[in-house]
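Hi D.,

Good news: the full-assembly prediction came through. Inputs first.
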Amino acid sequence: MNAYYLKKAKDNMPDCAGGTRYSDDIVELIADERAHLGVGVKPLGKNRESFVTGDRFVLDFGEHCVGILSFQLTHVQSYLDAPVCLRLKFGEIPYEIDTDFKNHRGELISSWLSEEIIYVDFPGKVTLPRRYAFRYLEVEILKTRQPVKLTDFAVHKSTSADERKMQPLPAGTDPLLVSIDSVAAKTLAECMQEVYEDGPKRDHRLWIGDLRLQALTDSCLFQNHKLVKHCLYLFAACQKDGQYLPGCLYDKPELFYDEGMGITDYALLYAVTLCDYYTYSKDMETTLDLYPVAKKQVELAASLHDEKGIITFLDGWSSFIDWAEGLKTTTAVEGVYLYTLEKMAELAEAIGKKEDAGEYRAALQKTRECAYKNLFDPQKNTFCNVYDNNQYSVQAQVWMILGGVVEGEEAWTILTQCLSNDDYIQPVTPYMHHYVVEAMIRIGRMEEALDYIKNYWGGMVQAGADTFWEVYVPGNPTLTPYGNLLLHSWCHAWSCSPAYFIRTYFVTVQNSPMH
Amino acid sequence: MNAYYLKKAKDNMPDCAGGTRYSDDIVELIADERAHLGVGVKPLGKNRESFVTGDRFVLDFGEHCVGILSFQLTHVQSYLDAPVCLRLKFGEIPYEIDTDFKNHRGELISSWLSEEIIYVDFPGKVTLPRRYAFRYLEVEILKTRQPVKLTDFAVHKSTSADERKMQPLPAGTDPLLVSIDSVAAKTLAECMQEVYEDGPKRDHRLWIGDLRLQALTDSCLFQNHKLVKHCLYLFAACQKDGQYLPGCLYDKPELFYDEGMGITDYALLYAVTLCDYYTYSKDMETTLDLYPVAKKQVELAASLHDEKGIITFLDGWSSFIDWAEGLKTTTAVEGVYLYTLEKMAELAEAIGKKEDAGEYRAALQKTRECAYKNLFDPQKNTFCNVYDNNQYSVQAQVWMILGGVVEGEEAWTILTQCLSNDDYIQPVTPYMHHYVVEAMIRIGRMEEALDYIKNYWGGMVQAGADTFWEVYVPGNPTLTPYGNLLLHSWCHAWSCSPAYFIRTYFVTVQNSPMH
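Then the structure:
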């Protein structure tokens, strides 16, 4: 670990706080075709307070919560002369409560399923030691000798977002945009803990890909520059000669990352995140401090280019781009490299690194030419994953556009002929959909970009999302990369960016950093 | 609650402390006919530290422990990127570890079984929130994505006994007596927490019957008079006009008792406990303070006597005496009343309550006569439970002897012809066996009393007991009042009294309070 960067990270620990949310609202889960995954909820009134063995109820906290659960467990008449055993099951969405966790099959380890069996020895306040992400809580009284009273269910919430800093959208804004913006902001706030977590239900990790979108969106919402700084320094502390930064890291109980976790596109997006950080914070000192780390990522990617000027991968180095099944990524990663070069050229100029800026611009021009020459398929009039199976994907087009290899009308034609064309691999994650929108905006297709946001993120809102999901493909609600929906994160950081688009390009917000 | 007595109880809160016991000694459970309940242990060496899903091991802490468990859970190489799920099972004896808790059937609620399934989110020190009573700990790794290291298993022990105060038995003492004394002392120390608990594994409650034997034995071992005082005041705080003190109370999270929990013999033994307290502590102030409460218990029992001078029960008032199946108790309770009268007469004299002393002595003489006249069966030459089904029991004889209704050779003849005679209900609990020994000593049968101790408590020692058990009937190891052995308390307060007998009557110990 780099001790200097680690110290800087620690000096910039964000504060986590959050109010307390109480609930005594009991709901019933009901089959409902229109509800997300077919499970809806029906209010049943208030918690009746006195329970015996076998009783079970579901509480609705009214909003997605991240935090510590507490409640009061007391005797009704006779003292509790034996431990009381409870099962507590946490769900971000009704489907999780409705589905028996025993039915979990899939690739992710089931220790992520949020369910506890606890024993309470004495009446009084019970506070669970772990943090949960949930809106619905199922309580089952597994064993008690005497009737028990269960009251004062509360979540002591945690976030490093100061929600008071968020400006409301102006009166008269399209209600769907208001909803999308609000769900996006909630999603981001829930993921903002001591780092930008990817999902507060599962992983709790700081991934560069998510960080980039979170930091960008946060700049338009809560402006927690300290949190961005903390995360940038954490990654910087992990740098090793000749290696990419790790794609993700763990900050608890202390900074840790696994060797060989370098992800080419994520390493580049670290540099992009620093560029964004300077744009929004104008914090020259931190930017100069971290600039060498960003520069190193670009150099490592540059060194991977072959004699044709196209990126290749070293053994053990990986890429991400999107979760689409079977996706080949080299062409898209080439686009990420170009996108990064352009941002780095701007940053280098802004912070007085003229020479670097010149080199970045020269590399940008040359590499764009190589990319067009070698990766564009004139017959199909789209980019192709030439270096891997000649695969065609939307992802490749989007990143070639973002890399500036094609522009304007030509780019738009390429993009439109791929989107919704089954011959092309389609975007799956909200993360990738962000870059689709960004590509549209880059080539000036503002109206289409807005429609895309309304359709895609608006689709989740209309399906009842409180927070945006880890995976969403319209019309395919059961699609999962894990073999099981139970472990999806239903509040996932990389889905939060529509608030950035709305507030930067579509709605004028008072005191917005960009207006 | 009586606020004055409650305040006095709080002012006399005992301190709980205790060292830390570490273990990395792995054992294997083995079938062993000679071992208690057929389950023995074989040492397997040291904990190997690195584990994967499905691994399981049993740690032996080398002694019975009451306290909080902690351990270190860390990654071996790759970071723990998902929660680790462990099953932890606690056993006072190997049989509990060997028996699947799922097989529990019986009358006591299974929430007393000490087993937890826990999830650990981050590597580091894990401290469980509950207190356990155990020597053996089984750990099973239910779910982990990466190998885990489990080390530094420790029990942070708790007791209010200061074991440094205990005098060793002199060199040359019969080794069996030394063992019995040592197991008894350990049993008592483990049950001495913020109150004299009946059993640290199950109940954790302060019962008057147990308290009497614990306080008496403690006076010869650790002399924690403050703890006796605390417990006496707690009961005093529960007194209500026209009602016995409750037979038991709960001290956590605050003083509580269930209405209608009066137990006639236990209420009387409260008075006896106060008499003992004065004998050992000579604390006149406390004794005078609590004397009215003791006196009230005697008055209530006196008022239950019918025109023949024999005790009867009011509806809803109960008795205990022993757990022997189908036992009828009125004759034995009559004996407890007489026993109490005698002790109270002595106390009243000692603290200057001459008039009371006279009344107690008069009542004692008159009631002894009534008892002999009405409860003795000359044909069988033993006492009979005349008021309930004419049942014959050892319990009735023992308490008539302790009540002074018969003495000397006559008493010895009565006792011997009942013990081991199947026509008489036999003692079951170590608690009742205490009073058998006390009866023998009262009539001067010292040698037989010592043999009885060696046979009865020595039998548990020879069966491998670390601490004395809740229930023990020689030759009938599977006898249970609960329908299941899993919920027996294997370290039970009312078994601790042989140390009192040994140190008071059989071995001269330096600085003993009675020598």
